[in-house]
Recover the amino acids of this structure.
């Protein structure tokens, strides 16, 4: 029997929940046919078959949780998709057996890196970020034991000799602090906790505040739509804010793909509005409406959660004027918009009642200078202040 393990679905979570099987034991299936729908990191994802063959065994039932790399399906008489090309077939089998990314997830013009170490050798007691750090520093996690349930970044650095000698081990009864709070049981909140943990550990944040005079807006104009247009205009002036910062390298991205924070009963969802500049107002408003509906129903397709180059949080629709929005790596910037309000301000040498929109913009100071952030915020404010 040839075993297909649960692959890494690219969401940074160590497991997935089986939601619906599309095959039965004994079924003959073709390569790339849908095997099962799983839920991970707020997305419902269909996992395709890596080979054609007969399903001999399903290793989990609907509702069960599997860790990445655990057996998912056993095949009898499995055949590769490309027998006419042994080299391609061998490469595909290596990627599949090692629990790597399903399909090819494109971000900009580059694909995510594929990890090709075997499942038996790949350490499971570490997050993807820690495993990546270990690979860069040539640290073999398989030969080590974590102090707690998972390896920490500090343990990898100590093993590589890049820090001072390790402190004496903690008493056996003292457990290491968990990476994810115990209360984050459902996928949406666990994904949020992991993202915030990465931000805390990796980002050097700075936040600037300002207000845009929106008194000239037409009645019932969409604040979110105006913000999207302003972000695209500001990114054109300061492209380093619409970028990724990975492996100490800043990479400006095109086009502008805005990850829109959506509040929902199950938690925070961040679907992506692709290519804002080339989309019409009607197209953007329809996507926003669809994302809100899907978020309330509890599932947004995985493809709509990928590829963001900058984030937007329109928290003012719920309450609050200013905030310190959290940058989630590898992105370098997030725009926050507060609740608009009327106030008396000087206008054309007179005291006037004007409507102001509070703005809060955070950036990763490792990658972006204060001047770049200030110019981006000024461009954002000026574009929003136009009639």
């Amino acid at each position: 029997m040839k075993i297909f393990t649960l692959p890494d679905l690219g969401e940074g979570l160590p497991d997935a929940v089986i939601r619906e099987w599309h095959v039965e034991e004994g079924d003959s299936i073709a390569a790339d046919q849908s095997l099962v729908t799983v839920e991970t990191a707020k997305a419902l994802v269909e996992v395709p078959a890596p080979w054609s063959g007969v399903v001999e065994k399903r290793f989990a039932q609907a509702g069960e949780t599997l860790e990445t790399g655990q057996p998912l399906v056993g095949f009898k008489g499995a055949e590769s998709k490309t027998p006419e090309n042994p080299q391609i077939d061998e490469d595909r089998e290596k990627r599949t057996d090692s629990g790597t990314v399903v399909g090819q997830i494109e971000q900009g013009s580059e694909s995510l890196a594929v990890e090709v170490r075997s499942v038996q050798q790949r350490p499971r007691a570490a997050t993807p970020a820690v495993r990546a750090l270990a690979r860069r520093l040539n640290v073999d996690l398989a030969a080590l034991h974590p102090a707690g349930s998972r390896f920490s970044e500090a343990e990898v650095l100590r093993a590589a000799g890049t820090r001072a000698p390790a402190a004496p081990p903690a008493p056996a009864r003292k457990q290491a602090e968990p990476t994810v709070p115990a209360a984050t049981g459902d996928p949406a909140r666990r994904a949020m906790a992991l993202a915030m943990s990465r931000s805390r550990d990796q980002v050097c944040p700075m936040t600037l505040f300002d207000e845009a005079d929106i008194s000239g807006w037409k009645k019932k104009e969409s604040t979110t739509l105006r913000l999207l247009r302003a972000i695209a205009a500001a990114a054109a002036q300061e492209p380093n804010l619409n970028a990724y910062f990975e492996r100490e390298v800043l990479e400006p991205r095109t086009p502008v793909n805005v990850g829109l924070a959506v509040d929902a009963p199950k938690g925070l969802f961040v679907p992506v509005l692709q290519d804002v500049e080339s989309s019409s107002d009607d197209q953007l408003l329809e996507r926003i409406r669809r994302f809100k509906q899907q978020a309330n129903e509890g599932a947004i397709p995985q493809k709509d959660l990928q590829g963001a180059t900058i984030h937007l949080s329109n928290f003012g629709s719920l309450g609050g004027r200013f905030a310190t929005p959290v940058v989630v790596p590898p992105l370098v910037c997030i725009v926050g918009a507060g609740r608009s309000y009327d106030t008396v301000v000087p206008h054309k040498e007179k005291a006037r009642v004007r409507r102001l929109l509070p703005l809060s913009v955070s950036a990763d100071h490792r990658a972006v200078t204060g001047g770049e952030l200030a110019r981006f915020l000024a461009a954002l404010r000026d574009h929003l202040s136009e009639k």
